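Protein folds are increasingly written down as discrete tokens. With that in mind, we are printing a sequence and the tokens encoding its fold.
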Amino acid sequence: MSENHPSPAPELFTWEFATDPYPAYAWLRQHSPVHRTTLPSGVDAWLVTRYADARQALADQRLSKNPAHHDEPSHARGKTGIPGERGAGLMTHLLNIDPPDHTRLRRLVSKAFTPRTVAEFEPRVQELADRLIDAFEAKGEADLIHDFAFPLPIYAICDLLGVPREDQDDFRDWAGMMIRHAGGPRGGVARSVKKIRAYLAELIHKKRAALGDDLISDLIRASDHGEHLTENEAAAMAFVILFAGFETTINLIGNGVYALLRNPEQRALLQDSLARGESDLLATGVEELLRYDGPVELATWRFATEALTLGGAEIAAGDPVLVVLAAADRDPERFPDPDALDLARRDNQHLGYGHGIHYCLGAPLARLEGQTALATLLGRLPDLRLAVDPADLRWRGGLIMRGLRTLPVEFTPPQK
């Protein structure tokens, strides 16, 4: 069909779209690469879908993370950002601020995510992966989201923050409420956020009296040594590390396993590589899974601080801008054969972790969790297979994240 008579614009944000948004994103890249739309929440926003435009937008300092730059109409009030964060006093975190505050707060927590620090965390992640599989492997079946992909990052992040082991199941319950209510009424998520906020306030108070070797204790030490970190900032930072860290890793594992089950030749290559004790394909494979069907569909909110032109579109000051990572990472102008899964893909500068000063701080930990999870699952459950028709799977609603509600699998139980 010619450019003068393009095919009809796709309908966005339906359940059919959630199942497979990639054809719609291909249309937008070709016909309306910076596309103004009304979101299900009623907010009007720009969607950026081409790789070059997306990379530019992610690093453009005229696009602020601070919601104060958005003059919200009454029907859209409170519908940008994380539900409940405003009411819970959790706004001052890395996803909502710009330099110099962003620079200061990011510096305070960055040492928790250095490659060396994350490497020291590897035995704990491996222990968690093995313990979770131990709990279901004798059954010959599991829901990989509920039984594995969800609890692994929750417990890992709780350890990182310094949440006592006896309280971690409460954190798991609250996080589960956030997942279950994602894409639905925002009140359920807001209630979970308030519970987490109240717990963090109490935990920070307790740790002031007995500091430990954990991230919350490090934030308190920084505050006590003149970094001027308020209690609200400490709680907000702990909250966003939990929020940004657990659901992304759930989806990385869930989407990744599902992609491998649908691409048996690629899955076999990875299993053969792991059996030989090689790690190169695992490392490039996780990056490819992030590109191919990553956990974050749209980057978090940005707001134009002044009028600007992006991808030929004129964006007014105050307009919300959402970079569609899932569309950019399948741009054929950047990635050859972008709709194919190629675990050995080398030139793979995907945007799954963002770009610029807001590049994902927890990327080293997410990579570790993703690699450990996949290697352990494929090693211990070598004949892992989907237990339902793919058409029966459902994707969670919501704007930012992309992930399965459930992933029922079956496998041969190990012989004891």
